[in-house]
């Protein structure tokens, strides 16, 4: 049957699809960089064949089909698709439990966060801990639940977290030994009777008395050993030239010692320059900055350059929109301090999101020039009588600046990434279009290209807490691509949050009687279960703006491709 699939069934459907794709290419909408759901479905199918995943079906079967390959390359080049396949999708469900302090859990939390690994961060009060203590492995915290199974011992958990996050060497035994050395030195200090006794004591005065020997002998001895060991590697990080969980352990230790614990001077780490270098390296890591510095934006609802910069960079921030009737100006609050200058706010958001260069002064200068021009024209747009000539003048000025940037080699490295001048330009462009001056904008090729680039970046993004509310979604399928992969990709490309549940055959058999049509995939929408892969794909495509719900002809073309896929997947040769 597989041989018939390769020689008869697949070629028949490929030929039909190729003809449809060629016809669709005649419509302007399908000539853009925008990815549609039928292209996602086609991409996953072509990928499966190219990877040789079908028995007796040659991986070269599609080589001569121009439009199949063009669609495949288009979707493969999408940044969200690249990001999706860079992530690990078979990770277990993780729950870390510790006290509401950094302590031994902090390097574990940071490892998960830096590695982009989802986990539940449960923090128990000391009173809550006493109630569950007897139920814990070894009666202590932290513990990590892995798919419901609790494991204990902070160093074992940190190694595990580091392995998942790519921050613990699993193939270089010597390097892993060096990392473990750092672990053990810190753990030995934490396990000293003097240290353990003070952790259990809640009275600050008693703590201070019990800790008399810690700053005199125990802590300096540990720091001296660590300083000497780190110095031996002669790098920016604890064990050499790149970040590992050893750096996170040192960072958490110094953070704890600098916190002003009773009896421990906050400057106790000052003499240890190599350790402080490691501390500063970790502290400056974008992910650490993101999770340690509270950021709050107070600004008008809708398109705001700072809001866009933070959102595009997936920076965690509190968004408090102002209504037009509110009194007050926009502000960016960083660690409790307010900043109100719009350009300074934008540069800060750019640094946090990676959309403003931190290492190239010349590049920053060229970006700043455009931001300054935009600030200048924005001020003039507040005049009681806005002259059309002002918009024409500044549009031409901005177009010239953008043309010049295109000839600068370093900017070509950022073709797939939005920079803050493009974000600011985008907001201005949308304002001008909203005033009815589309004709002025459309005359300027570089401005339109920057606008399109930003539109693609923002597709499906939730820019404020008050913007589009998505239902709670849970997609259930097997732990492989199959019919669910285009659905997963569509949700991910559109930036729509969803739970990606992957179950085995045994679990399916247990649930089968409760499933619509007794099959997968299924999508739960606010608890309501729906079935049929193509129906689900249409739904998520519409939800994410990847499927036309207003252009009947465009939707018909997409549905035509869907129908061919459905006919293929239900064919006898495929299911035999």
UniProtKB/TrEMBL annotation:
<dbReference type="InterPro" id="IPR010987">
    <property type="entry name" value="Glutathione-S-Trfase_C-like"/>
</dbReference>
<protein>
    <submittedName>
        <fullName>Glutathione S-transferase</fullName>
    </submittedName>
</protein>
<dbReference type="InterPro" id="IPR040079">
    <property type="entry name" value="Glutathione_S-Trfase"/>
</dbReference>
<dbReference type="GO" id="GO:0004364">
    <property type="term" value="F:glutathione transferase activity"/>
</dbReference>
<feature type="domain" description="GST C-terminal">
    <location>
        <begin position="172"/>
        <end position="322"/>
    </location>
</feature>
<dbReference type="InterPro" id="IPR050213">
    <property type="entry name" value="GST_superfamily"/>
</dbReference>
<dbReference type="GO" id="GO:0006749">
    <property type="term" value="P:glutathione metabolic process"/>
</dbReference>
<feature type="domain" description="GST N-terminal">
    <location>
        <begin position="92"/>
        <end position="169"/>
    </location>
</feature>
<dbReference type="InterPro" id="IPR036282">
    <property type="entry name" value="Glutathione-S-Trfase_C_sf"/>
</dbReference>
<dbReference type="InterPro" id="IPR004046">
    <property type="entry name" value="GST_C"/>
</dbReference>
<dbReference type="Pfam" id="PF02798">
    <property type="entry name" value="GST_N"/>
</dbReference>
<feature type="domain" description="GST N-terminal">
    <location>
        <begin position="471"/>
        <end position="548"/>
    </location>
</feature>
<dbReference type="InterPro" id="IPR004045">
    <property type="entry name" value="Glutathione_S-Trfase_N"/>
</dbReference>
<dbReference type="InterPro" id="IPR036249">
    <property type="entry name" value="Thioredoxin-like_sf"/>
</dbReference>
<dbReference type="Pfam" id="PF14497">
    <property type="entry name" value="GST_C_3"/>
</dbReference>
